[in-house]
Amino acid sequence: MARRTDLRPVVKLRSTGGTGYTYVTRKNRRNNPDRLVLRKFDPVLRRHVDFREER
């Protein structure tokens, strides 16, 4: 069975710390129509920072 990529698209999360580090994840467009913001670990800065969705 094929994946429904229109409902759960792949998004890139870019660090707000200015390092350029990214995470790749999927999000549910029905539950989160806005841009996703997650607090995750940035290994370049070696601390937790906000990661924002970029399109």
TrEMBL record:
<dbReference type="InterPro" id="IPR011332">
    <property type="entry name" value="Ribosomal_zn-bd"/>
</dbReference>
<protein>
    <recommendedName>
        <fullName>Large ribosomal subunit protein bL33</fullName>
    </recommendedName>
</protein>
<dbReference type="InterPro" id="IPR038584">
    <property type="entry name" value="Ribosomal_bL33_sf"/>
</dbReference>
<dbReference type="InterPro" id="IPR018264">
    <property type="entry name" value="Ribosomal_bL33_CS"/>
</dbReference>
<keyword id="KW-0689">Ribosomal protein</keyword>
<dbReference type="InterPro" id="IPR001705">
    <property type="entry name" value="Ribosomal_bL33"/>
</dbReference>
<comment type="similarity">
    <text>Belongs to the bacterial ribosomal protein bL33 family.</text>
</comment>
<dbReference type="GO" id="GO:0005840">
    <property type="term" value="C:ribosome"/>
</dbReference>
<dbReference type="Pfam" id="PF00471">
    <property type="entry name" value="Ribosomal_L33"/>
</dbReference>
<keyword id="KW-0687">Ribonucleoprotein</keyword>
